[in-house]
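User: structure tokens for Autoinducer 2 import system permease protein LsrC, please.
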Amino acid sequence: MSTDLNRPATAKAPEERHRRASGIAAVLRLRELPVMIALVGLVFFTWLVNPLFLSEQGVKDLLLNATIVMLLAVGQALVIITRNVDLSVGSALGLVAFSTGSLFFAMPDVPVIVVFILGMILGGVLGAVNGILVTVAKVPALVITLGTLYIFRGINNAWAGGTQYFAGDRPQEFGALSVNTVLGFPLITLIAVIVVIVVAVFMAGTRPGRDLYAIGSDPDAAKLFGIPVTRRVLLAFIANGVLVGLAGVLYASRFNSVGATTGTGLELDVVAAAVVGGVAIFGGSGTVVGAAIGALLLTTITSALAALRVDKFWQQAIVGILILAAIIIDRLAALRTARKLRISEARNV
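Assistant: Done. Predicted tokens:
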């Protein structure tokens, strides 16, 4: 009797071990895993050298520094997954941030929620401009967004001139978003985390989100399967613009001043964060969570090297090395997958 009762458990044991092994293998294959390991290792090493790096204020500064880039990297990931790129995000953020300062200066009593809504609408409009030009004109996004980078920056320069809006020009409750904390997390960082979760669920659990991956993998095949490629790519650019708008408003809350040069050069950091976070530059793979972790890694590198008193040149060099490493790893992974597919097809013949 006992032997019979033990048989199911004995039979299930190999299956359970197989499931555990499969689960471990799946974790090891995560594109975000190397980035997470690098982040933890960097933080730990810096803490050993400089214990103040993980003080309460140090952790808060790390999170605040990463918040804006995290939001921008999430939006950029949506675009890159479709085999496109948006180089205008820095200029668009500057335009939204200066608009936020101008709105508070003209209407000091305007509700903060209205400012957020208007900023996201403006960002969505700028994203729609990019998306329409890319999808209708059929011109590579690299060229289009390089042009709108200068157009948006030129508009901001003409509008702002030498004008700057400082922290004293905004309501106290708006500036408090980057000062107040919940369980040690700054409010604006919590907003960014919520956005990452929402977008991640959208990408993994909805048809439009999965369509973006299909488009990035093979646009022609996506069309044959009935996916509305033009609408989906336009959606990615608009969603990216909305997130840029949100980041622009939070930028105005986070920093002491906004003006004509706000956001200059930020687009390169954003693309780097997405690529380092495992989003394939050739499209079709990667996650917004990985992009957010990549943003946290890059901003942590800057803070860590500053804490270690390393020259700023090396900060830029390390970021460049990470980008090259991410692209090479992604390429090698693609070649390995293609080789496995060829072997599998050969065996089936």
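User: Anything notable?

Assistant: The longest helix spans residues 312-348.
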